[in-house]
Amino acid sequence: MASSMKKTVRKPTSGKSPSSRGWKLHQVTFQDHTGNHAIMAWGAEEGQRIPPLASWAFYLVNRETPRDFNATAFKLNLEDGRDLYSAAGPRYEFFFLPGATPEQCVAHYRGEIAARGTMWRQVRHVRMATKDTKEEEDEGADSSAQESSSDGDNDETQPEITNDQGLPGLPWPKHKEDWFYTNYRQCLFLYLDANSDIQSGPHPGRNVCLVKFDPMPIERGEGEVVRWDPTEQPIYTKHMKLIDEEGSEEDLRDWIQDRKNDLWVSEATNATNQAKTLGWEAWQ
Questions:
Q1: What range does the domain containing 27 cover?
Q2: Where do the segments described as Disordered lie (predicted)?
Q3: Whose CA is closest to 111, among 185, 161, 60, 44?
């Protein structure tokens, strides 16, 4: 939420790792479902090679965006020492679609989910692996403690997917509490600038477009009149600043921070911690 207090303008960084001992910023390239170059970045303990399961997707639509876009610098400049997340935080994925419209980015994202699956497939995998490793010690114990209320949901209907790159799946919020205030199940961001040095200060442009899609029907009571129905607007867009140092409006950093305790984020974080305990270095 935007604060009424004036914020201090800070200079963008070059993407150097924080000074915290044992902490490292990771940036790796991969191929998206179309075979195009893509990047993911995340921060983690020095020995953690597996990417966090929680994520946000950014589409680099500026035609002048360099192929060697500094994703770690973008991450540091956006977070700027703020406690945006309850734990280590998600990974950021960057897809290169020069000149793409919101509709084209949504179509690409859906193709990426179809190719990689959602995070819930991997939540199930790590949960089963954790259960298997404890079977001998916990023989006869009630295994229901390992289950989650989300297990009964049946939103993901994709067939089992071969994950040759070891890529993490993508978010697919299942719980009503996670989309109640947006009325859309999915979102992504179009980054409109070319460089990772996020512009801030009193007069920066609205250099990001929040795109929400896959609307969820509003439950209406008998005779209730709904002033706005999201299903009438399948794709919703809103231009905003990545960072509003003046605090005069909600920026993307605030928007992300407000969702750090969503249930899907918690489930993804727990699964990532379990995968680390199991010694996984890639998602299955």
A1: 23-134+145-278
A2: 1-22, 129-170
A3: 161
pLDDT tens for 170-215 read 999 988 888 877 889 999 999 999 988 876 544 457 899 999 999 9
Fill in the DSSP letter of residue 147.
-
Residue range 158-170: mean pLDDT, rounded = 73
Strands, E, within the chain: which ranges? 23-31, 37-45, 55-60, 91-96, 184-191, 208-215, 235-240
Q: Is the residue at 239 inside a domain?
A: yes
Helix-then-strand count for the chain, H and E: 6, 7
Does residue 140 lie within any of the structural domains?
Answer: no
Q: Per the structure block, which two tokens stand in for 13?
A: 């960084």
Q: Count CA atoms within 13 Å of residue 90 on its CB side.
A: 26
Q: What separation, in Å, do the N-terminal and C-terminal C-alpha atoms of the chain show? A: 37
Cα–Cα distance for residue pair 267/150, rounded to 1 Å: 9
pLDDT of residue 99: 98
pTM: 0.82
- Helix, strand and coil percent figures for the chain, each rounded to 5: 25, 20, 55
- Residue 173 counted as domain residue: yes
CA distance 172 to 179: 10
